[in-house]
User: Which sequence fits this backbone?
């Protein structure tokens, strides 16, 4: 009897031990399926976001091209105006409005940064400050070389007004020293918009800051 009882006990143990692997296998299958589902969702997300990333990179490159075009156009205009005597002094055309946009620190206090300084503003904020009434024209035309200037032509020979540049000059000594008009900072902002109007949504911007020296 004892032997029979012992054999039954061993048999029961063996049956239980044989059932355990199938349960572990099911858990392993679930884990594998969960992992594959996660990978699949990630792949779909990357695939779906790929075109958006490509479009953003293309818009950024186009904004950079617009800023470069603004630099070339402004350089030509400034050289021509100086050569023909239309500009007596470059300093007369620095951007100073709104007040403080060219001054990095208030009251020449290095511990008191000026929040209106152009380098502390986004490109969109700068454009809105230059044209505060939103009519598409600069509030102070004499202080801006170009504002929202389209430059790209479409296949029909018409200006594609989605691509524009804005260029202005900054006195690099403003608020921190004596003004020297023999050198200044040229700021070029390239913009790509969703539509042709200056109020249309901005898709990308690019800002170039070039230090210019003028031969007197």
Assistant:
């Amino acid at each position: 009897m004892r032997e029979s009882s012992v054999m039954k006990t061993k048999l029961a143990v063996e049956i239980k031990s044989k059932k355990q692997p199938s349960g572990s296998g099911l858990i392993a299958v679930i884990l594998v399926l969960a992992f594959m589902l996660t990978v699949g969702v990630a792949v779909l997300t990357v695939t779906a976001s790929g075109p958006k990333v490509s479009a953003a990179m293309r818009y950024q490159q186009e904004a950079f091209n617009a800023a470069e075009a603004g630099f070339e156009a402004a350089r030509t205009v400034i050289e021509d105006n100086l050569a023909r005597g239309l500009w007596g002094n470059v300093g007369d055309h620095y951007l100073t409005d709104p007040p403080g946009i060219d001054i990095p620190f208030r009251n020449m206090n290095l511990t008191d940064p000026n929040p209106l300084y152009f380098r502390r503003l986004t490109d969109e904020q700068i454009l809105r400050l230059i044209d505060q009434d939103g009519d598409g024209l600069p509030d102070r035309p004499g202080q801006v070389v170009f504002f929202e200037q389209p430059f790209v032509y479409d296949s029909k020979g018409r200006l594609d007004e989605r691509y524009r540049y804005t260029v202005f000059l900054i006195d690099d000594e403003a608020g921190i020293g004596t003004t020297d008009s023999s050198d200044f900072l040229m700021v070029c902002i390239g913009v790509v918009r969703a539509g042709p109007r200056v109020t249309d949504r901005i898709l990308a911007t690019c800002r170039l800051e070039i230090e210019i020296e003028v031969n007197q």
